[in-house]
Every structure is written in structure tokens, then in C-alpha cells.
């Protein structure tokens, strides 16, 4: 028992107020997982996250629960790179010749629509390890972790911003998230800025707002580039209603004011989970910069 192990509900409320900016969440996390950490609220708080009312644990905390349960003879990473992660494990209550092997691949992540998310783009190996680990834990040790989901799993399946999802995943995996790179891949000079949005941007003389809006829409639908073959794959946004909204608003653009509103809206929708590809997002950003729209206007 430690000073953070409550002896009553009032004591638990007092500790929660002391160690958390969200005491109610702290109490709920303790109720859900405290027993796995000897009743220590501080340790529970450090290993658990509340995401939109749903309690979750770090993937490594789930592994710790299994190890402490006495059910695990061993669990090891047997193979791991940027394309896959494989865990091998065994239970203490099974014959020694029974070994369980689980692999999570980048193709599996792609099939689930995860690889466009920032956390998967920036931390593919960490995400593969976490996903292979929780897959193994729930399949082999359900009597220890049944019903528990890792924080990164919940974040990948929630309607939250891509940056928030990446931050949550990084925190839960103990990783430092790199600042997002929004700069276009090829830019020979700084973008030109224009002061009056009602006037035609200098760089766009000869193109109408409608033509630019149409070009931005086409950029938003760009697929992923296969670096080996040089071919661009077909891609569809996960949210078809967003595509229809963009198309309708783009067709209605008739002046520079409307183009700016359209571009900012397109940028926001393109960055929703599993919508535009990274290549498409880069292309939209480059065009927005060319039009003179600052990062602040785009909400970056």
C-alpha cells in the first residue's frame, strides 16, 4: 500500500483531486483498472487514459498485467521491421510444446484504413508493435485482459482530429511525436502573399477561381504513389458525404472570396481520418500557399 492507495471513496476523491486535472476521469480509471495496479491511483493514472468516456490502457501496461498474472511463460518479439511485427508467446498452464505466434502487418493496417493517419505515417514501427502486442494478449490471455483495449486502438477508431490522435498514440507509447511537416515537397521560392482576398492573386493570373477550385478538388482525390513502379494507386475518401460536399461547393465557386472559403473547407475535410492521402494533402497545401493562404487561415 502507498499514499496513493485509497481507503475510502472520500479518500479516493481527495487523491484524484491531488494527482489529476480531471478527478472524475481519474476515479473512473481507478474503478476500471485500479485492481491491476495494487489499488495505487497514481500508477493507474500513469498507465491509463480516458478517451471520450472510454477507459483504456497503454499496450505495455496490458502486457504488464499479463506478466503479473502468472499465466505468461514468456512473450518475445521474434521479428520486427517497418512492414510487420511478430510476437511469440506461451502460457504457463499449457504444454511446453504449445507456442502462439501473432503478426500484425502494414498491409493489415492499410486494409483497415489506418496508414493515412499521422500516427501511422510517423511511427509505423511503434504502431505495428503495439497492435501486434494487443492482438496477442487478447487472443492468448483473455482471462487476464478480456475487454481491455489499448489507448492507440481506441484513438484510431474515434472521430477526433488527426493531430490529436497522433498525440494520444505517442503519449500512450512513450514516444516523442515529430512536428507535422506541412511544407510542400518542392518549392523553389517562398509563397507569395496577397493582402486583399477580393483581388486576384498575382500568381494566378489567367486562371479563374472556378478552374482553381476544380484543380484543388482533383488534387484531393490523388492516390498513393508506388515508389517502385512510379504508378499512383486509386484512392477513395472514407467519408463519401465529404466528397459530395467538396464537389458541390467547388462547383459553386465564382469569385476569390468563395475560393478562399472553399480551400479552407477542403483542407479541413481532407485531413479527416482516412480521407485524403498524404500526397493529396501535400498538393492541397502547396496550392493554398501559392494562393497566399497562411497556415493560420488553414488552422495549422
Short description:
The protein has 300 residues and is mainly α.
Characterization of the model:
The protein has 300 residues and is mainly α. The protein has 3 domains: 1-56, no CATH class; 58-180, no CATH class; 202-226 and 235-298. 49% of the residues lie in helices and 10% in strands. The chain contains 15 helices and 5 strands. The strands form 2 sheets. A 3-stranded antiparallel β-sheet has the order 3-4-5. A two-stranded antiparallel ribbon has the order 1-2.
Radius of gyration: 24 Å
| Strand arrangement in the largest pleated sheet | 3-4-5
- What structural category arises from helix and sheet content? mainly alpha
> Count the strands?
5
Overall, the morphology is: flat
Give a short account of the largest sheet. 3 strands, antiparallel
Q: Give the CA-CA distance, first to last residue.
A: 46 Å
- Helix-strand sequence: HHHEEHEEEHHHHHHHHHHH
Overall average pLDDT: 84
Low-confidence stretches: 182-198
DSSP strand (E) fraction? 5-15%
Number of helices: 15
Helix proportion range: 40-55%
The total number of structural domains is 3
